[in-house]
Design brief:
With 393 residues, this protein is of the alpha/beta class. 28% of the residues lie in helices and 16% in strands. It has eleven helices and 15 strands. It is globular and about 75 Å long. The protein starts with a strand and ends in a 13-residue tail after the last strand.
Length: 393
C-alpha cells in the first residue's frame, strides 16, 4: 500500500525550490529526518493501514523509515476480497501474468491515508534460486583500440548504402582511462568522499570479484577495493523466468564498472532487488535513496511505462523521488535503448520511471575517442532500422 504524504504540494514545492538556481532555497536540502517529519505519512496513518491489512489476512513486512509504503503479501483470494476486484491470468510474450480486472477499492476509513495500491499486477512465475550467469561476449576482430585506428577496406561498398564507405571498424571497447580522458576528468575529479548507489534486479554473487578483475586487466591504476564496495543483497529472489534473471548480471557489472571508471575514489553501494517488478525495484530505490549515497543510478525502466504504468506505480515512485530531491540525492535513469519505442512496439511513448519529472533521464551515446584520448565526436542513439540484405528481385 502506498501511503499519502502529509503535504504533497509542499514536498513538490521544496523539490522545485532546492533544484532551481536563483531560488533562496537552492541547494538548501533537508536531512532525511527533517523531510520525514514534514512530509512523510504519519505514524497513525501507518498504524491504520497496517491494522486494516492485517484484518484482511495480509502478512505485513517491514515499513521503511520514511513511511512511504507498507509491503504486504497475501493470497489471490485475500487480494480479491480486500480490494473488491477479481484477478485474471493472461499470456504476455509467452509469460503468464496476473492482472486486476477492475479498479481496486479501499474502505472509506482509509481515504486520505492510502493513496494507491501497487504490485497487484505482475507475473506469477516463482523460484527461490539465484539465476545462473549469462554467456560471455567479446567483439570479434578486426576491431579498433581507438576510433579510426582501423578502416574497413575489405567489404563491398554496397553494404554501407546509404552511408559512404569506407568507415572505421567498431571499437573493441574503450578502457576507463580513455573514457576519463574523453570527458576531461582530471586527477581532481575522482569522486572522493561521495557514495553512488546502483539499483538493479537480483545480485550477481561474483559482482565485486568480476569488477575487481576488470580493473586489474583494463586500468590497474584505479583498482576497485573491497572497502569501496558495499553490497546490499536481496534476502530472497524470485520471478527469474519472467525477468530473464541472468540477463541482469551483465547490466550489474556494466553499471558498477562505469561508476568506478568515472569516479574511481567514490564508494559504490549496490542494491539488488528481489525481482524485476516495480514493487521490488521501488523498495530497492527507496533503500538506495536513504543509504547515504549522493547519487542513485538506475539503468532500467518499464517499456512504454509513461503510457502503460498505472497511477499507483507512478505515485509510489514519484513520492520516493520527492524524498530524494528534497534531501539532495540525484536520481538518474537510463532513458532506454529504443528511443520513443515506436520501432519496437508501434507506439510512441517513453519508458517510466525515466519520464518522471523528478528524475534525470540519461540517453546513451556512441562516443568516438581518438588516438590522443580526446573526444572527436559523439552521437545519440537511435532506434532506426536499416535493411542490410534483402532477396534479389
Amino acid at each position: 500500500s502506498v501511503l499519502s504524504l502529509q503535504n504533497a504540494a509542499g514536498a513538490q514545492a521544496l523539490e522545485a525550490a532546492v533544484s532551481t538556481p536563483g531560488s533562496t532555497a537552492f541547494h538548501q536540502y533537508l536531512t532525511d529526518a527533517q523531510w520525514e517529519a514534514q512530509y512523510s505519512p504519519s505514524a497513525s496513518a501507518v498504524a491504520a493501514a497496517e491494522s486494516w491489512l492485517t484484518s484482511q489476512g495480509f502478512s505485513v513486512g517491514a515499513v521503511p523509515a520514511d513511511h512511504l509504503f507498507i509491503p504486504a503479501a497475501g493470497s489471490v483470494a485475500q487480494v480479491e476480497s480486500a480490494f473488491a476486484t477479481t484477478l485474471g491470468y493472461y499470456k504476455v510474450n509467452g509469460q503468464e501474468v496476473q492482472l486486476a480486472n477492475s479498479s481496486l477499492s479501499i474502505p472509506s476509513s482509509l481515504s486520505g491515508v492510502v493513496s494507491a495500491v501497487e504490485g497487484v499486477n505482475q507475473s506469477i512465475a516463482t523460484t527461490t534460486q539465484e539465476p545462473a550467469p549469462p554467456a560471455g561476449f567479446r567483439n570479434p576482430e578486426p576491431c579498433s583500440s581507438y576510433f579510426g585506428q582501423k578502416t574497413d577496406t575489405a567489404d563491398n561498398p554496397s553494404l554501407y548504402v546509404p552511408y559512404t564507405s569506407p568507415l572505421p571498424y567498431d571499437i573493441c571497447g574503450y578502457t576507463p582511462s580513455q573514457l576519463r580522458s574523453a570527458y576531461g576528468l582530471s586527477a581532481a575529479n575522482t569522486g572522493a568522499g561521495v557514495a553512488v548507489a546502483v539499483v538493479d534486479a537480483y545480485d550477481s554473487p561474483t559482482l565485486f570479484s568480476d569488477a575487481h578483475h576488470y580493473f586489474a586487466l583494463n586500468d590497474p591504476s584505479i583498482p576497485l577495493s573491497s572497502s569501496q564496495f558495499i553490497n546490499l543483497a536481496p534476502a530472497t529472489v524470485d520471478q527469474q523466468t519472467a525477468c530473464s534473471g541472468s540477463g541482469w548480471y551483465d547490466e550489474q557489472a556494466l553499471d558498477v564498472e562505469a561508476v568506478h571508471s568515472m569516479a574511481p575514489k567514490a564508494d559504490i553501494i549496490f542494491v539488488g532487488a528481489q525481482d524485476c517488478f516495480d514493487n521490488s525495484l521501488l523498495s530497492s530505490v527507496n533503500t538506495a535513496i536513504t543509504s547515504g549515497a549522493s547519487v542513485v543510478t538506475d539503468s532500467w525502466g518499464d517499456d512504454l511505462g509513461d503510457l502503460l504504468d498505472d497511477a499507483a506505480t507512478k505515485t509510489a515512485y514519484d513520492d520516493t523521488f520527492l524524498l530524494a530531491g528534497g534531501t539532495g540525492v540525484s536520481v538518474l535513469f537510463s532513458s532506454g535503448d529504443a528511443g520513443d519505442n515506436f520501432n519496437d512496439f508501434g507506439l510512441t511513448a517513453p519508458d517510466y520511471p525515466p519520464s518522471s519529472p523528478f528524475v534525470t533521464a540519461v540517453g546513451g551515446t556512441t562516443l568516438e575517442v581518438g588516438s590522443t584520448g580526446a573526444r572527436t565526436a559523439e552521437y545519440g542513439w537511435s532506434a532506426g532500422k536499416q535493411i542490410l540484405c534483402e532477396p534479389a528481385s
